[in-house]
Amino acid sequence: MTSYNFLFASWGTLGNLSPLLTAARRLRRHGHHVRLIADPAMRVEIEAADFEFVTWRRAPIGRAADPTDVSDMRERMRRVVFEPCSAYAADIRDEIGRVPTDAVLGLDLLFGAAVGAKACGVPFAFLSPHVSIRILPGMPPATSGLGQPKTPEEHAEVRRASDALAATFNASLPILNQARVEFGLPQLSDAMELFDEADRVLLAISQAFDFEADALPGNFRYIGPLLDVPSWSKSWQGPRSPRSDRPRALIACSTGAQGQREVFQRVINAVGTIDLEAVFTTGPNLDIADLQALKNVHLVRGAPHDTIMKDVSVVISQGGHGTVTRALINALPQLILPMGRDQSANAARIEAKGAGLRLAPTASAPEIAAAIKQLISEPQFKVAARSLGQIIQADIDTSPVVQEMEILAAIGRRRRGRA
Q1: Opening angle at CA 107, ends 176 and 197, nearest 5
Q2: Residue 170 sits in the same domain as residue 303
Q3: Are 335 and 307 within one domain?
């Protein structure tokens, strides 16, 4: 069996890194070597998984790479995705020069990684651990929170939302093109062409979870969720309660910093009005000391969600894809209060599939409490979650991620042999 060398590229939070580590473990089990280039803060997690860690050198790190103080979507895309393109590309180019590389896999907002791999002639795949960022015909764009269009009016609304997202990307297209010219690549007429240029776009979600596009590009593949548990999520011993007959909930905060303290304090306050026990995993970006806990809410920085979910009736979260998917696999209804990123898109799909409810992050404690009660008392939510979760688990078990990356690596190895 041929063994290939892969370079994986990550940025930002542990939530971004975890799907890459899952894919890396699968490739390693097939005899391949994987090294990961990422933020220095990810070193411990990567080395704990026994992979080689490489740091970004020119590219931004920490809050500079993923700032929390940008509310304007166009400005955020410019600062996070486009302006660092040349730096990311140079780091990827240098790393490919340091170690012979058969293929590169990068998160879908690392446009510079695509530029660097393309400039080196190495096959490149985008990994989307969430719904597609690339605009697809007939599908609500990732940032819109819209449902599957059915009427002419809804189709028109989706087109307007898609046009708005395209304008957001293309406002910074000159920056991307400047980086491409710098690395000897032709300019693009539309930022979305970067996805079409990739050898693969791997959507790490289940097609059954997604809405339906009018057509999918030929390089798109649904590979199912990539959901290994991060090492920082320690073994779990739940609190013992004298009221074992009470329903239980998991409150799960995003691993990304989104200024969510006030939202989750309202969630805590809502749970305090219900005959319910809750475990609240705050994650790495919310300080337990900043929250006012009630007697029926147990606060913990991290714990394996799969374990907690075996013993709860409902999940409350911002709607990150990992948490949403784990809840479905465990046949749990969900209340989602999306605050950005892919969260509105996930909430729209959960709502459309009948597996949960969506509230605005500004929802009051009484509104949150009412939704939690509805999810616990009405069985159709759990039935829908179980049905969808069974399909998702089957997709995880049969994921083609290894085969897809091996195809690209074989191409890359042949190119290197001719170089």
Answers
A1: 50
A2: no
A3: yes
Q: Are residues 390 and 411 in the same domain?
A: no
Neighbouring CB atoms inside 10 A of 29's CB total 9
80 and 191 assigned to the same domain = yes
Q: Are 385 and 331 in contact (CB under 8 A)?
A: yes
Structural domain contains residue 338:
yes
Domain with 267 in it: 248-395
Going residue by residue through the chain (419 aa), what tens digit of pLDDT does each one get? 799 999 999 987 777 898 999 999 999 999 999 999 999 999 999 999 999 999 999 988 888 777 766 567 888 889 999 999 999 999 999 999 999 999 999 999 999 999 999 999 999 999 999 999 999 999 999 888 899 999 999 999 999 999 999 999 999 999 999 999 999 999 999 999 999 999 999 999 999 999 999 999 999 999 999 987 665 455 555 555 545 678 888 887 765 555 577 777 788 888 788 888 878 776 656 566 667 777 777 766 666 677 788 888 999 988 888 889 999 999 999 999 987 778 899 999 999 999 999 999 888 989 999 999 999 999 999 999 999 999 999 999 999 999 999 999 999 999 887 65
- Specify whether 307 is located in the same domain as 329: yes
Domain co-membership, 389 together with 404: no
Asked whether the CA dihedral 395, 397, 398, 401 is positive or negative, the reply is positive
**At CA 146, angle to CA 142 and CA 148, rounded to 5?**
100
Number of domains making up the chain: 2
pTM for the whole thing? Answer: 0.88
**Which of these, 129, 110, 134, 127, lies nearest to 60 by C-alpha position?**
110
Report if residue 185 sits inside a domain: yes
Q: Check which CATH number belongs to the domain holding 44 and give it.
A: 3.40.50.2000
